[in-house]
Design goal:
Elements: H1 3-7, H2 16-23, H3 29-43, E1 50-54, H4 62-66, E2 71-76, H5 79-89, E3 94-97, E4 113-119, H6 128-138, E5 139-150, E6 160-165, E7 170-175, E8 182-189, E9 195-201, H7 204-213, E10 216-225, H8 233-241, E11 243-252
Parallel strand pairs: 1-2, 1-4, 2-3, 4-5
Antiparallel strand pairs: 5-11, 6-7, 8-9, 10-11
Helix pairs in contact: 6-7
């Protein structure tokens, strides 16, 4: 890593202004069209339930939970993000600043929540096992944990991309690395290039096994295609064939 990268702050405080501008009040286009509907379909929140959103960002999930009559709590490690969440969506729930690995330090009770959600956040968290153990601690027996993330089999940062076969006239997905876990620094954002995020790639088996080790049994897996990426038949076919997001739902087993 270069000296320039060493000086650049990592974490989401430095990216809060850029991220909030990109997301807006109600989430990015991909959030509104794909990720949020997927979470709600998997979670099926009901009136009077308590839902925990881990890695809440600036809280775009909160109004969707509140309008279904459920109680929303968001946890976010970035203090700037928490402040923006309270400004944008404070009327829809409670936002706490804290580490996803240490939920027990935030004044929460064990088995307090009917649902725990990771909305495009779990791939920014590490170590995975600590995060999943904390989520299982917060979840009541029979409660459900929902993850929506970029698909780890097809969307590996800096290790996958689109290719085009001129002879066969089709687009394909190129994957250069998959089984090896990777910590991938992503490009910096903002006019001053002042911050950088890190994505943690893991193969799908790490998620399934990690959930099982915490007493969380996967009962549903959805593979969600992306939005159409072009006007040609080949581009439309590729967009439908290679999922952008992966949705997982797991239920907490009785002890």
């Amino acid at each position: 890593m270069s000296k320039q990268h060493k000086r650049r702050p990592q974490g989401w405080d430095a990216l809060a202004t850029w991220y909030d501008g990109w997301m807006g009040q109600n989430g990015s286009h991909h959030h509104r069209q794909l990720a949020l509907p997927a979470v709600l379909d998997l979670l099926q929140p009901r009136a009077h339930e308590s839902i925990l959103d881990v890695g809440a960002g600036q809280g775009v999930l909160a109004p969707y939970i509140a309008e279904r009559g459920a109680r929303y709590t968001g946890v976010e490690i970035s203090s700037r993000m928490v402040n923006r969440a309270r400004q944008r969506h404070g009327a829809h729930g409670t936002f706490l600043r804290g580490d996803a690995r240490q939920l027990q330090t935030l004044g929460l009770a064990p088995a307090m929540f009917d649902g725990v959600v990771f909305l495009l956040s779990i791939q920014d968290m590490n170590p995975l096992d600590e995060v999943l153990r904390a989520a299982a601690w917060a979840l009541r027996e029979g409660g459900r944990l929902v993850i929506v993330m970029t698909h780890p089999c097809f969307r590996i940062p800096r290790q996958s991309g689109w290719g085009h076969d001129d002879q066969r006239k089709l687009y394909y997905r190129r994957v250069d690395s998959y089984l090896t876990p990777l910590d991938v620094p992503l490009k910096s954002y903002g006019p001053a290039q002042g911050g950088m995020s890190i994505s943690f790639h893991r193969p799908l088996s790490r998620y399934i096994t990690g959930l099982g080790n915490c007493g969380l049994l996967v009962d549903r897996l959805d593979e969600i295609p992306g939005l159409e990426m072009g006007s040609s038949k080949a581009e439309r076919r590729a967009a439908h064939e290679f999922p952008l997001f992966l949705g997982l739902r797991a239920r907490k087993l009785a002890a």
